Amino acid sequence: MTQDLWDDLLAPAASDPLAECVYGSRLIGSDPALVLHGGGNTSVKAPFSDITGGEVETVWVKGSGWDLASIEKAGFAPLPIARLRQLLDLDSLSDTEMMRELSAARLDPAAPQPSVESLLHALIPYRAVLHSHADVIVTLTNLGDGADRVREVLGEGVLIVPYVMPGFDLARVVRDMWPAGGEGSSGMVLLNHGLFTYGDTTRQAYQHHMELIFRASRWLEAHAPHLAAEGNPMGRVDPLELARLRSEISRAAGRPMISVRHDSTQVARFVNRPDLASVATRGPLTPDHIIRTKRIPMVGRNVSSYAVRYRRYYQRNLHRARGETTMLDPAPRVVLDPEIGMLAVGASASDAKIASDIYHHTIPAVTRAEDHLGGYAALPEGDLFEVEYWELEQAKLRRRTDPPELSGMAALVTGAASGIGRACAAELMERGAAVTGFDLSPAVADAFDSLSWLGVTCDVTDPAAQSRAVERAVERFGGIDIVVVCAGIFGGVSPISELNASEWRNVMAVNVDAAADLLSGIHPFLQLSPAGGRVVVVSTRNVPAPGPGAGAYSSSKAALTQLARVAALEWASDGIRVNIVNPDAVFDTGIWNEELLATRADHYGIDVESYKRRNLLGTAVTSAQVAVVVAELASDRFAATTGAQIPIDGGNERVV
Fold first, then answer.
1. Whose CA is closest to 489, among 466, 464, 465, 459?
2. What is the pLDDT of residues 400-451, one digit of tens each?
3. C-alpha to C-alpha distance for 426 and 588, rounded to whole angstroms
4. Looking at residue 191, what DSSP letter applies?
5. How far is it, in rounded angstroms, from Cα 299 to Cα 332?
6. DSSP 619
7. Whether residue 553 lies in the annotated active site
8. DSSP 646
9. Listed residue (576, 575, 596, 574) closest to 585, CA to CA
10. CA distance linking residue 620 with residue 611, whole number of Å
């Protein structure tokens, strides 16, 4: 629940109005019940000192691209108030023209691009302004009688503004309404949009914000209480069904997509509503959510039908577009299904997280409105279309650069807690993939701090445990496109005449048996990959050029290599490519320790440093270098390559 977190001991003094605005912005920005993923904006009016020493009456407005939760002074764009109010005297101003004028008006050209609502901030005759999309406020506005409910709950001291697209049109409407309802008000509710409050200081604007939110919260708790979190979360779903659905969604999107399953008690209750198909398809809480979630979620699993309906929606409303438009992909971003629960979909794990966060806030608001307040009512689809195909969003689309090459793909790496496996996971994530790592070490769970990472502690020699880990990977990212088989152990060093049978079996279990079990179980997921399955097996130079004393290791890797070659033969018809890398002398891995290095160097009659560089190039080979080759083999540049064996060993005369 939202709390008043203002601390006078921590807050900057009002004598530094921009610093105080930063503090207040962070307070509302850090509360997801008020601001989600870049939503909301704030401003403060304070003089700007130019290079001549003169002062300009200025509004400092939150800049585009800055998150309120972490904003700094540099995140505010200084704009001359007189110029902005002059723009409001124009008869009309397109969004593109408005943003060009706002950009040109910046008193500091190094400042970020100003908020689209800068004109409204300049118009409001108070020094400090805070704007949020508070859940409790938009719950009240998304009702058939939203304006009446807002007036009933918040009283006469609030200006209620009918829905208008943000920008010039909204600022003009507020300007016209202000003399009759704005003077003396402490806040302003924009229907289907959010809450503005203002004051002589950010502290005062924040107080007004909290007062109105608390008033709405108390009223909703009395008239539309939240249900207790009772019941059970969703049950198990066949991971192949999740992968199949993700593949169909990706096909509709025209690119690989990440899909994340959510199965909480709250989700379970919502997706099992008898009226789900009706209540879930009326529109988002606020129009800006449509950019992340589409206008409506997909109820059920018929992706092709959803895509057809989306194209019809586009054609039906195309006349409302302002300027030339390009149709966005028709794939859903939220899926609701009584058996699956909720899938959040995005071009990356981060995008999927944004969609899920938004819809987790949508569910209780929709439920309250539908069950207690006469029914949930979002904006008509035409108004929502105008936001989805806003000329400013279309301009962003045209400026967008290509995403990372493995964006939307889901990878699985074994042996990922250290060494080559960890380096492979890092390289794949750097190239845009979401990665699940398996390792016996618990350190794998926290190997990376990223939404694109899932670390699973798993003994790969336990087939049941490995199968459960694969299932977790599919639930987290939707499927599996890339597999890097890297888990391995060296074992002891001894001649065959002194072979330790137990150690032999242990090396074989990790290096061969576990890989065979993984590849067998993973094949149907790779078949369903929207990008075409890609497997890279990390073997060793010991396969083409074995050394004495490493019989178990060399034999196990030779068997693994042969297994990969057979997979390349068998899986090519499924569009799955399987390639092999043969590293050698990679000493920044868990396989090597000082004792083993000394033993191997002594075996060859050389010192340790010479042993480390015993290759044709006389160079050190690192895990990161191996990872780059692995990632390249998983990329589209090797789309026509399967069954290849690539040495990464600095050159070896016995191989060359």
1. 459
2. 788 999 999 999 999 999 999 999 999 999 999 999 999 999 999 999 999 9
3. 15
4. T
5. 10
6. -
7. yes
8. E
9. 596
10. 10
Query: What number is the average pLDDT over the span 9-24?
Result: 96
Residue 30, both tokens: 């850090």
Catalytic option among 126, 198, 376, 553: 553
How far does the chain reach from its first CA to its final CA, in angstroms?
A: 67
Indicate the helix (H) or strand (E) that contains 485: strand 482-485
Tokens of 56: 């300009």
* Crossing angle of helices 239-253 and 303-317, rounded to 10°: 30
Contacts of 278 (CB under 8 A, 6+ apart): none
655 CB burial (10 A radius; 0-12, 13-18, 19+): middle
Q: How many CB atoms lie within 10 A of CB 551?
A: 21
- 194-199 vs 128-132, strand pairing mode: antiparallel
Please report, to the nearest 10 degrees, the dihedral formed by the alpha carbons of residues 377, 378, 381, 383 taken in order.
130
CA gap 486, 469 in Å, rounded: 16
User: Nearest-CA neighbor of 245 among 153, 173, 133, 337?
Assistant: 337
What gap in Å lies between CA 135 and CA 284, rounded to an integer? 12
Pairing mode, if any, of strands 158-161 and 187-190? parallel
Amino acid identity at 150: V
State the residue for tokens 């209540």.
Answer: 279
Phi then psi dihedrals of residue 207, to 5 deg: -60, -45
Residue type, 523: H
Q: How far is CA 298 from CA 3, 480, 633, in A?
A: 34, 22, 35
At 276-335, the pLDDT tens digits run 999 999 999 999 999 999 999 999 999 999 999 999 999 999 999 988 899 999 999 999
Per-residue model confidence (pLDDT) at position 144: 93
pLDDT of residue 474: 98
Secondary structure tally for the chain: helices H, strands E: 24, 20
Phi, psi of 63, rounded to the nearest 5 degrees: -85, 150
- Closest C-alpha to 320, from 388, 393, 395, 382: 382
**Over the stretch 449-494, which tens digit does the pLDDT of each residue have?**
999 999 999 999 999 999 999 999 999 999 999 999 999 998 888 9
* Beta pairing, strands 41-45 & 58-62: antiparallel
Task: Give 586's DSSP letter.
Answer: B
Amino acid code (one letter) for 348 = S
Q: Which residues contact 310 (CB under 8 A, 6 or more apart)?
A: 294, 330
Amino acid 338 reads P
Alpha helices in 483-593 (DSSP H): 501-508, 514-527, 551-571
H or E element at residue 81: helix 81-87
Q: What is the dihedral of CA 474, 476, 481, 485, to 10 degrees?
A: -80
Q: What is the pLDDT of residues 220-275, one digit of tens each?
A: 999 999 877 666 788 999 999 999 999 999 999 999 999 999 999 999 999 999 99
Hey, which residues does 132 pair with through a beta bridge? 195
State the angle between helix axes of 419-430 and 623-633 in degrees (0 to 180), rounded to the nearest 10: 50
Average model confidence (pLDDT) for the chain? 95
Question: For the chain, what percent of residues have pLDDT higher than 70?
Answer: 99
The secondary structure of 413-431, three-state, reads: EECCCCHHHHHHHHHHHHC
